Amino acid sequence: MWGNLNATVQHNASGGFLNDSNISRRENSKRVENVIPIMIKHITQSNNDLQLWGMTVHMITFVAIVRNIGNTSTKMTYEFEDETGTISGFRWLERMNRPDTSINLNSYVRVYGHIKEQNETKYVLALKILPLTKLNELTTHLLEVSYVTLRAEKMFNIEKERTGGTATNDVLLEDNNISGLTKEQALVFKAIQAENDSENGIERRVLKTRIPQNILPYVDDIINFLTSEGHIYTTLTDDHFKTT
Fold first, then answer.
1. pTM of the entire predicted model
2. Any idea of the CA torsion for 28, 128, 84, 60, to the nearest 10 degrees?
3. Do 244 and 36 contact (CB within 8 A), yes or no?
4. How far is it, in rounded angstroms, from Cα 35 to Cα 57?
């Protein structure tokens, strides 16, 4: 199974190493919009765009042990290790407001983030790092990697048969919803995404003026969900958002 995934997962992202002023947020017109579970070796052994059966992956998640933690005035740095390899990562303190003390050395965590590269060295720009509370979450992650691989392969083959062997990057893992979101969650996500080009994204108060009235009572809950799932993150304040 790992051989199949390794053969179809490829990566290359530009950006300044541990320097947010040089990290480019290159948008791909054809990409997998949801968070894709992978193993560390699929990052370190890959080339070109990170892809899953021809579909560019934007965000990834993996489960690993924290082998090293460091911090400066602007960022937290980490060394992650799973059974397939190790990789460095960092998280900007401006997104966390203060150093994260819930992450301990030699403990399992789940990481959500983007893959970056500098001088042929890959690393992870972490958007969220969560300590594992139960070890069965590790088993769940391994099953998720297997499931996503098999589902993507199935969808790819179906599209290939439909197009007579000319399946392209237009094959999507998801059906009609963005990242499997509900209609209401997708509407809020798209409203936030529309302001991604602005410096600080969209403010919560403004967001509430750009969505249907029937969703207003649930906006805060939807924002909390999108944040916890790694679809959006805060910028200037806890009330300013951008999509990942």
1. 0.54
2. -20
3. no
4. 8
The pLDDT of residue 46: 72
**Residue 87: per-residue pLDDT:** 95
Enter the tokens of residue 186: 């997708």
CA 95 from chain centre, in angstroms, equals 15
pLDDT at 230: 82
Beta strands in the chain (DSSP E): 31-37, 51-52, 55-71, 75-82, 85-92, 108-118, 121-131, 202-203, 232-234, 240-243
Contact 129, 121 (CB under 8 A): no
Question: Token pair of 72, please?
Answer: 């400066």
Please give the single-letter amino acid code of residue 47.
Answer: N
Amino acid at 85: G
Residue 219, pLDDT score: 92
Q: What is the 3-state secondary structure (H, E, C) of 25-80?
A: CCCCCCEEEEEEECCCHHHHCCCCCCEECCEEEEEEEEEEEEEEEEECCCEEEEEE
The 3-state DSSP class for residue 12 equals coil
Series of mean pLDDT values for 10-residue runs along the chain (244 residues): 41 32 36 74 74 71 95 90 92 69 91 86 90 88 83 69 53 42 85 86 90 86 87 89 87
Residues in the chain: 244
CA distance 23 to 154: 34
